Amino acid sequence: MKKIAILLSGRGSNFIKIYENIRSGVITNAEISIVISNKPDAPGLIYAKNVGLNAIFVNPKDFGSRIEYDLHVISILNEIGIDLVCLAGYMRIITKDFVDAFPHKIINIHPSLLPSFPGLNSQRQALDYGVKFTGCTVHFVDEQVDHGAIILQEVVPVLDEDTEETLSNRILEKEHIIYSRAINLIVNDKICLKGRRVYILN
Ligand code: GRF
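ok -> structure tokens follow
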């Protein structure tokens, strides 16, 4: 059974979907061993506590730097023996120390077809640019923001009547599907990484 850590800062809908999919058997061979938030009142953290998961707030104010914060998080994750770290709306840029501590074991979901529209407000960026298709990406995390090797992507058409909200909602539906799919592939050793290319094994 692979041990997953979830890091989040907000709503946590991706985390909740992962949790539900583990319970219902859509994701096999995995358990959520810890949920960590940098925000005490993150709805995702509160949900995790309510369903009885090991869920903790790590206060950035208790640490002098981002590195010190991440070293503390790393020590928590190492103590548990975490196999996979899933960033799920985690609004902190993680340090190189963090990436190096878990090589190819940290993944993220991003609401665009990377490398288009990295960073914040990707759905707004897509609308402003005028693309006809956008989507979402699950990728490994490296030292650069929204940059690591791409595991899965899903396309979402942009409709003439779309607002940032309607587009975000339709992308989110796809996020909920491909994040769990990617996790299931990884925890069942169905992913092979060569350079930047991710191959899915049968
Ligand atoms: C999602 O859009 C995800 O792609 C991005 O942050 C948002 C988190 O949403 N990284 P939620 O907290 O999982 O509902």
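DSSP finds six helices and nine strands in the chain.
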